Amino acid sequence: MFYITLILAILGILLIIVFATQNSTLVDVSLFTWNINTSLVLVIFGSAILGFFTAFFLQLYVQIKLRLKLHKAQTQIKELEKKLEQTNSGNEDQNTIPIKIISP
């Protein structure tokens, strides 16, 4: 799966490079009160880089959020396993069958 993603990313970058070099005319870019006369290549590359960083930081946020959730779940599992062991050790006097803990 990693190689497919890598190949698609390289093809996307090549497509952007070809498109940008074939459209190298000067354009006016207006943003609020700014007016810039620049090459279309720079506008295309700037937009692509901005899109990349936006997607990267959004994905980074999602990854951090999922890792925190996983850490909390693992902590809860450990606490519940300790409680289960304490319960099993307290029930040995009553001739009960202890529950065996199987870790993933």
Structural notes for this entry:
With 104 residues, this protein is mainly α. It has a domain of 61 residues. It is elongated, with a radius of gyration of 28 Å. The two termini are 25 Å apart. The mean pLDDT is 84.
Q: If you average the pLDDT, what whole number results?
A: 84
Report the C-alpha radius of gyration, rounded. Answer: 28 Å
Care to count the β-strands?
Answer: 2
Count of helix runs: 2
Order of helices and strands, N to C? HEEH
The percentage of residues in β strands lies in: 5-15%
Low-confidence stretches: none
Oligomer: single chain
Largest sheet: 2 strands, antiparallel
How are the strands ordered across the major sheet? 1-2
List the keywords.
104 residues; mainly alpha; two-stranded antiparallel sheet; 2 helices; 69% helix; elongated
In short:
This protein has 2 helices and 2 strands. It has helices at residues 2-22, 40-90, and strands at 26-31, 34-39.
Topology:
Elements: H1 2-22, E1 26-31, E2 34-39, H2 40-90
Antiparallel strand pairs: 1-2
Helix pairs in contact: 1-2
